[in-house]
Amino acid sequence: MPELPEVETVRRGLIPAMEGRVIAAARVNRPDLRWPFPPRMAQRLTGARITRLGRRSKYLLADLSSGETLIVHLGMSGRMLVSGAVMGRFHHDHPAPAKHDHVVFDMEGGARVTFNDARRFGAMDLIETDRVEGHWLLAGLGPEPLGNAFHQDYLVERLRGRMTPIKAALLDQRVVAGLGNIYVCEALHRAGISPKRKAGRISAARIAELVPVIRTVLQEAIAAGGSSLRDYRQSDGELGYFQHDFRVYGREGQPCRTPGCCGTVTRIVQSGRSSFYCPQCQR
Ligand SMILES: [Zn+2]
């Protein structure tokens, strides 16, 4: 499932094909993904110029010259493929239409962007650009973890007195937007905090330390995604999924990577989701 760094990588990969360009033709091959598409979506997109391709949490936001913004969520399995575009030295031929190609954007300049989503947990909607922050998918979101509103005093205050485990508190999108299971596990490991600790029982100093750790974990993943963008041009044009070395995520039974720690990465289930952590160095 794509998390914030993957979505940011998709955004950066789409910019050369989409930002500043007119959607020459949009094709919508089915009435819905997770929810119905907005009425006349293809007509509303066709002919519009994408003035800015932004991101809020795990949502891509394409501001259009028509005054609307296209909101895109990749869901569980959504993929963006770029073809036909000359990206630097590389060129991908348009692939044959595939099953689960649900929305296709033919851009002015020859690039084609295909949204493929086998499980259809993705979503797209259109809303007037000046109302986008109030869209029901975005309205309740907390600050961006890489933005200025996410700072140490904010997080300390937000978690004060909360008796939920710190893992669940950081996954709460109202506390901080876009953090998912993988990067919360990684951040807690680097901060040396057990995912089981009650948020309100952790000292303010240790909560404050989490802020730069979360930023670092996300920035490193975004950097890894950037490296994958340089590679994708040689592969099939698919954006957003990349190999990344995790310190705990998916490493159950393997040695902890904290220098000097002889612990073993352990998996527990919290709120129905796997938490990976080292019981030795995460307290
Ligand atoms: Zn350890």
UniProtKB/TrEMBL annotation:
It comes from Rhodovulum adriaticum (Rhodopseudomonas adriatica). SUPFAM superfamilies: Glucocorticoid receptor-like (DNA-binding domain) (SSF57716), N-terminal domain of MutM-like DNA repair proteins (SSF81624), S13-like H2TH domain (SSF46946). DNA binds at residues 100, 119, 162. It comes from the Bacteria. GO terms for molecular function: 8-oxo-7,8-dihydroguanine DNA N-glycosylase activity; class I DNA-(apurinic or apyrimidinic site) endonuclease activity; damaged DNA binding; zinc ion binding. Residues 247-283 form the FPG-type domain. This is Formamidopyrimidine-DNA glycosylase. Binds 1 zinc ion per subunit. Involved in base excision repair of DNA damaged by oxidation or by mutagenic agents. Acts as DNA glycosylase that recognizes and removes damaged bases. Has a preference for oxidized purines, such as 7,8-dihydro-8-oxoguanine (8-oxoG). Has AP (apurinic/apyrimidinic) lyase activity and introduces nicks in the DNA strand. Cleaves the DNA backbone by beta-delta elimination to generate a single-strand break at the site of the removed base with both 3'- and 5'-phosphates.
